[in-house]
Specification:
Length: about 270
């Protein structure tokens, strides 16, 4: 097992997204996952019904203890629900994780539309966390909120990615899964270039946790010293297969099959 990934994110009681999806993903791709939990959520495939935040000082303690003992080859952030949490995470990154690659999934909304980020914390996210990121992985709604642009077609992904690069991250992956069409288009941009990934769309209601899963899969690749483009390509393939082989659980937006690299779903 190679590649240590420290995940700083919220818990999903349904197991489809958040810390639970992150742990499954890193393990399925051969990495080692450690966690610092930022919030507890009560949710299922039909929505988020409750959120209890973890005290920022305790989030910092979780991060520091893991970094001091086990260490990390990559860090990944997910749900950081308010400005105090973001400030706390950044402070630990600056003092205990400087130089370690960081994948930021700027989680702002749940799959069903529920808000997972205090709107007043958006500037803190943009000004303090994004500039430290090796990669940020916004979906269309998040990219629109962070860039101020409207995304309606694949060409808009490129404009949004370029605008987001100006906020300081080393690279941006704007995910185009919410656009209409038979093909899914994702745009990876960095200051020196851009790469577009396309794949046939798998029609499925089982897409709960795709964003968390993709970001953690990329983080695992970076922790395993894969080049960014290769890490993104492997992560996209992993998520596509996890959707295709999903177990079809729940009455709403069902979870993926994170363990398809290990065993088939029976």
């Amino acid at each position: 097992m190679t590649g240590r990934v420290l995940i700083i994110a919220g818990s999903d009681s349904s197991g489809g997204a958040g810390i639970q999806a992150d742990l499954k993903t890193v393990t399925a791709l051969g990495g080692y996952a450690a966690t610092a939990i930022t919030a507890l959520t009560a949710q299922n495939t039909q929505g988020v019904f409750g959120i209890v935040g973890v005290e920022p000082a305790f989030i910092a303690q979780q991060m520091r203890l893991v970094l001091e003992d086990i260490g990390a080859d990559c860090l990944k952030t997910g749900m950081l629900h308010n400005a105090a949490v973001i400030d706390t995470v950044v402070a630990v990154l600056e003092t205990a994780a400087d130089g370690i690659p960081l994948v930021v999934d700027p989680v702002m909304y749940a799959k069903g539309g529920d808000s997972l980020l205090d709107p007043t914390a958006r500037d803190t996210l943009s000004q303090r966390l994004l500039p430290r990121a090796s990669l940020i992985t916004p979906n269309i709604r998040e990219a629109e909120a962070l860039s101020g642009l409207t995304i309606r077609e694949p060409d808009d992904l490129e404009a949004a990615a370029r605008q987001l690069l100006e906020q300081g991250p080393a690279a941006v992956l704007v995910k185009g899964g919410h656009l209409a069409g038979d093909m899914v288009c994702d745009c990876l941009a960095w200051p020196g270039g851009m790469e577009i990934f396309t794949a046939p769309r798998t029609s499925s209601r089982n897409t709960h946790g795709t964003g968390c899963t993709l970001a953690s899969a990329i983080a695992t690749g970076l922790a395993q010293a894969m080049p960014l483009s290769a890490a993104v390509q492997r992560a996209l393939r992993y998520v596509q297969e996890a959707i295709r082989t999903a177990p079809d659980l729940g009455q709403g937006c069902g979870p993926l099959h994170h363990g398809h690299t290990v065993q088939p779903w029976h």
